[in-house]
Design goal:
Helices cover 31% and strands 30% of the residues. By secondary structure, it is α/β, with parallel strands linked by helices. The strands form three sheets. Strands 10-9-8-11-12-14-13 form a seven-stranded mixed sheet, sandwiched between helices. Strands 2-3-1-4 form a four-stranded antiparallel sheet, with helices on one face. Helix 8 links the parallel strand 9 and strand 10. The radius of gyration is 21 Å and the shape is globular.
Length: 307
């Protein structure tokens, strides 16, 4: 099967940041086009001032990040992840895909998305796959149709957060899921015994998908989905607040998150690449005590409580 090429066009000034975020999707198969300093770099690197006419015609105001997704991976989730992260970082962007029609790759990856055990108690079952109980009959099965929303459980950031939920969710607790994507974390918490969950996402498609996944798992009566930017449409206080986003947004969210936390509440943070962990820890250190840390393939998830 063909690979999927994802092309992300951004302003030239944002190309390095856009590339850093794109690198989160895959540890391989990425390159960047940036012609904003073409003449200077040609002289500095190649020591020539004669540049091909086609290169000179390139748009100097834009940069393009190219990401390549293998047939076994989920390009729909990768695109959703990138859109969500670029919106959160305020990076204007245009994303296109190549190698096969969009309606094909949206469905082609599904053949590789099989039931996935997560932690000790959970199992994610794609709605188009049967599950025979081979991973253990005592697992809680979360049925999922992610569509184009981020969150299938295949990405380390989501799995790490689910493992922390499995460890800390108590019966009857309330949860706020900031940047809920497919709703996978909210649904997981409810299936693990939480009494209610509110999921908020800036993407209307994600909000719609989250509601549908709550209904699939028969927890829609305990789930509320809100379309908004971080917590701007959220009210109330919660026993658990989860943010599976990126380091910069977690740092920004932390400044105002206390008003949404009940006494003794748990603050779960995921989507943190290891090179940004110290910055997140510094941001939470004045008011939070770290109670758990999980790591997988360069991704970090943290759990903290107010001091």
């Amino acid at each position: 099967m063909d690979w999927t090429e994802i092309c992300i066009t951004v302003e030239a000034r944002d190309v390095d940041r856009a590339g850093d975020i794109a690198q989160m999707v895959v540890p391989y198969g990425i390159y960047m086009e940036d012609y904003s300093h073409l003449e200077e770099e040609a002289m500095e690197i190649a020591h020539i001032d004669l540049i091909d006419e086609e290169l000179l015609k390139k748009d100097r105001t834009k940069g393009v990040v190219h990401v390549y997704i293998s047939p076994e991976e989920n390009p729909a989730e990768a695109v959703s992840f990138l859109r969500e992260r670029y919106q959160a970082e305020g990076i204007a962007h245009e994303i296109t895909t190549a190698s096969c029609a969009e309606e094909d790759w949206i469905n082609n990856w599904k053949k590789y998305f099989k039931p996935i055990p997560v932690g000790e108690r959970l199992l994610i079952r794609p709605t188009w796959e049967e599950y025979d109980g081979s991973a253990g009959d005592d697992r809680v099965v979360l049925s999922l149709d992610p569509g184009l929303a981020f969150g299938t459980g295949t990405h380390e950031t989501t799995r790490l957060c689910m493992q922390l939920l499995e460890e800390y969710v108590q019966p009857g607790q309330s949860m706020l899921d900031v940047g809920c994507g497919s709703g996978i974390l909210s649904v997981a918490a409810l299936l693990l015994g939480a009494g209610s969950a509110v999921g908020v996402d800036i993407d209307e498609l994600a909000v719609k998908t989250a509601r549908e996944n709550a209904a699939l798992n028969q927890v829609e009566d305990r789930f509320t989905a809100v379309c908004g930017d971080l917590t701007d449409k959220v009210t109330g206080q919660y026993d658990i607040v989860a943010a599976n986003i990126v380091a910069d947004v977690i740092i920004r969210l932390t400044k105002d998150i206390e008003r949404f936390l009940k006494p003794g509440a748990l603050y779960l943070m995921s989507g943190i690449i290891d090179t940004r962990e110290e910055e997140v820890l510094a941001a939470i250190a004045p008011r939070f005590e770290l109670v758990a840390r999980r790591e997988e393939k360069g991704w970090i998830a943290l759990a903290a409580r107010l001091k």
